[in-house]
Design a protein that fits this description.
Oligomer: single chain
Helix content: 25-40%
Largest sheet: 8 strands, mixed
CATH superfamily of the largest domain: FAD/NAD(P)-binding domain
Number of helices: 15
Structural class: alpha+beta
Strand content: 25-35%
Radius of gyration: 24 Å
Length: 490
Amino acid sequence: MASPQKVVVVGGGPVGALSALYAARRGYAVELYELRDDPNYGSQSARPDIAVIPLALSERGIRAIAEAGVPGLLDRILDNSRPIDTRMIHTRDSHGNIKNIPMVYGPQGQCLHTLPRERITKHVMLALMDEPNAKLFFNQRLTSCNLDAQVATFESVVWKNTAEDGEKREASKPMPVETSQTTSVEFDFLIGADGTYSSVRQFMMRKSCMDFSQEYLQALWCDFIFPAAPDGSYRMQSTCLHVWPADESIVMCQPDFDGSFRAGMVCDTAKVRYYEAHPDEFAAFFDNEFPGIIPQILSAEAVTQQFLAHQKMPLKSVKCGQLGYKDCVVLLGDSSHSMTPFHAMGMMTGLEDVRIFFQEFRDGAGLGDPSKPFCTPGTVEAYSRHRLPDVHAMVDMATEHYYELRVGVRSTAARTKKVADAFLSRWVPSLDWTTLYARIQFGHERFTVVREKEAMQKKITQRVLAGAGGLLAAMAFASVMKLAEVVYNE
């Protein structure tokens, strides 16, 4: 009997681990190479990329995990997760009083599931370890890759803390140190799932005329931790994503599992640099922009202390002009598209990449014998043509949502439209009319279709309000939607 083809996966995050599991379940000889420690046994301190804020798992990711075909895998991942069904907006009214505005996520009662970010990787890795045809290698850096000869070379690394005592946290994260121990690996098919700064993508770009773009948001992300109350309880409603919008900045937080909330502030880069140089002014700025946090949740001193201690991370979008090379390489997840976090769809889109590539293109080509070529000629190119417009649309919608979270959620007109969309979705489902957020998070339509339907809904709404008797129509519409908001939120 012929030996199965070898599939090498570079990157052991959720997308890489899931793609390796999909390949192993189809009978291929799978080898996964990951730069970091084994997430099940390695030290979390040796994994500097793990963000503080928990993951919000939505329907696209849930479906991709469920359809890996491992009994109980999804249940283990979702075990003890917390449902998030509402976005709570914290702002001020026209008199300067603090105002809290709930905005329900799912018109049909849907919710997100918040869970520790590393839980997906851990459980998918454990499932992969149970596959007899899968091998996992950790602390391995891809140093060269001959795509035509189909040979990849990896170098072993060790993680060392290079900071001196007293240095800031951003300088103290562990760094990989090369050991000069290299391994060359032949492959029949290579999956690049090695993140935003993908090495596989860089080797692809040396071999093909591949368009590539990256765009930085003129803002930085800074983590905050809002501690539990003295009795260990949550200080705010634990089924909400809490948002404090401002003109040029925003704070978002989700509940963790110990009574605390994990938060992120996104703020104009120039302002961040100013307050780093003038920390005595930061607490006053923070309190003015984000009402109700000081002193109810954090003291002014604690806010300033966390701001100075935590690293400031840039936010960028990445787009690629192709998602593979010939019929031997494919890019999945952040290696092929990276987006800002405002729709929390980066990982969900990557997990969906895995399902679509395997089910709709590789399996769809009738490839069932693991001893035969992993992909038929044209499979990777067909996937690239199909998926590129969708991931580019999602990258754009994620960036646009930054404006929505800062400005739109405070706009009566925008909130009225959202309530109208949700009301029609709930009570007249035959219209196929719903919110943009619900289409992205709780549906499985292509992102290009989502964008087209949202544009159509906006156009129809504008025409209704601008038609004959526009003012009266607008007043009547607003009155009906105000009633709808009461009914809907009940």
